[in-house]
Amino acid sequence: MTEHSHHHGDHGASPNSTSAIDPVCGMQVKKSDDARSSDYGGETWYFCSEGCQTRFDADPYFYASGNAEKSQQAARPGTQWTCPMHPEIVRDEPGSCPLCGMALEPMVPSDEPSEELTDFTRRMWISAAAAVPLIILTMGELVGLPVRDWLGQRLSVYVEFVLATPILLWAAQPFFQRGLDSIRNLSPNMWTLISLGVGAAYAYSLVATFAPGVFPEEYRMGAGVGTYYEAAVVIIALVFVGQVLELRARERTGDAIRALMDLAPKTARRILPDGTEYDAPLENIVEGDLLRVRPGESVAVDGEVVEGRSSVDESMITGEPMPVEKTKGDRVTGGTINKNGTLSISATQVGADTVLAQIVEMVAGARRSKAPIQGLADRVSSIFVPTVVAVSVLAFVTWFTVGPEPALTFAIVSAVSVLIIACPCALGLARRRAFSSRTPRRWSAWRASTPWL
After folding, report:
1. Three-state secondary structure call for residue 81
2. CA–CA separation, 39 and 304 (whole Å)
3. d(Cα 184, Cα 199) in Å, to the nearest integer?
4. What residues contact residue 94 under an 8 Å CB cut-off, 6+ apart?
5. What is the pTM of this model?
6. Alpha helices in 319-371 (DSSP H)
7. Distance between CA 86 and CA 314 in Å, rounded?
8. Which residues neighbour 441 within 8 Å (Cβ) at sequence distance 6 or greater?
9. What is the DSSP letter of 274?
């Protein structure tokens, strides 16, 4: 796009040339009888693809006049991604946060649904479907359902294994990945503790199921050794519930931001130097373009009235219900509604420079902001998680050194017990993180509905 302004006449080549420059993307294309081309202004323009030709045909003046080079939209940087929990993390491509492992989200709101929300919702329901029968199987006798007695101890343990294994090996995979990332990046957090605790509970239960003989008699419960399948699955299900609630809250705020973006029209009526008019895509409007705003239409961009008289509803900016009279020399704001007259305006701010775009950016910034309590939760995690791991290692060393025989078995069980007991504490951290991250989102959603405040 940076070259086409000096390539007119058969678009970018001399009449005898066999190639031309695509005015939309700037690529060199070969001229032939079957090449994609359009005629405009007495010249022939060639294109590398149907998409480029379609964009040209929608607004030929924009590309043929060289205005594409002035377009702020063309100069805007690509979409960047950030972590909702750590806004200081900014990347040029999607991925995971190196600090907490959460999926990065685009900084510019998108109409695309959240893939993470869809995925986590499915994993949550599957985890819950496994957690319910596991709870009934292990605690049913407390409410008059002695399912374990009906099936027998050995068969009950195998049923628990069958229900829990898909959850640990598939549903909880994002949690284990985040836990691994936190260890790799030396940034311990709740995912570190959840992955260690749940993984330890499952590994302990596997040994208790298929090799109960390695445990001392003190650990035996009747014909077998107690397992923690239900604890691991319930923890996973509860963490998914918190994550889904958080993602849904973020999605609702994204809807509010998109509603703000929709206040601006998708097209603007451009007035050409010869007086003709046509509807051009909004992203093709550049500073200095002359635009027509008809009665009932939204003002496309910020500008100055050069002709006409009308009243404009500016309630989306000021909150005032009464329209404001606009005449020659007055300023108008993109997204406001022209009521009863026709205005001709000169575009002064377009794209990201408009007032509406800046409001959207402020709301999006509030959405990504970190509440003070979230910083406290991060600091607690950075201390609590290493402490738990250190206590677990200390328990192992102590039992292995001075414990009774079989010392190794007692040491492993003691270390695993510390991780399993401490794991639910991560749910409290997760709850506080979810609450703290939802708070600015609720605020921003409210501000989105009342932008004049």
Report:
1. strand
2. 33
3. 17
4. 81, 103, 104, 106
5. 0.67
6. 355-368
7. 36
8. 249, 250, 252, 253, 366, 367
9. T
Specify the 3-state DSSP secondary structure of 397.
Answer: helix
pLDDT band of residue 131 (cuts 50, 70, 90) is very high
Residue 96 has pLDDT above 80, yes or no: no
- Cross-strand bridge partners of residue 36: 47
**Distance separating alpha carbons of residues 156 and 229, to the nearest angstrom:** 11
Separation between Cα atoms, residue 63 and residue 69, nearest integer Å: 8
Spatial distance between the Cα atoms of 280 and 68, rounded to a whole number of angstroms:
13
162-168: average pLDDT: 95
* Residue-wise pLDDT tens digits, 256-276: 777 777 788 888 999 988 888
Are 127 and 236 spatial neighbours (Cβ–Cβ below 8 Å)? yes
What pLDDT is stored for residue 447 in this prediction?
40
Per-residue model confidence (pLDDT) at position 122: 95
* Spatial separation of the C-alpha atoms in residues 71 and 74, rounded to whole Å: 5
| Structure tokens belonging to residue 122 | 């499915």
C-alpha angle 12-17-23 in degrees, rounded to nearest 5? 20
Tokens of 230: 């239900």
Amino acid at 451: P
What pLDDT was estimated at residue 444?
41
Residue 115 burial (CB count, 10 A): 10
Question: Residue 442: is its pLDDT beyond 60?
Answer: no
The packing angle between helices 115-139 and 229-261, to 10°, is 150
Tokens of 449: 């509905």
Residue 394 tokens, joined: 């200390």
Say if residues 1 and 18 touch (Cβ distance below 8 Å): no
Q: What is the pLDDT of residue 417?
A: 81
Q: Nearest CA to 317 among 339, 295, 296, 302?
A: 302
Q: How far does CA 92 lie from the centroid of its chain?
A: 14
CA dist 210 and 137 (Å) reads 19
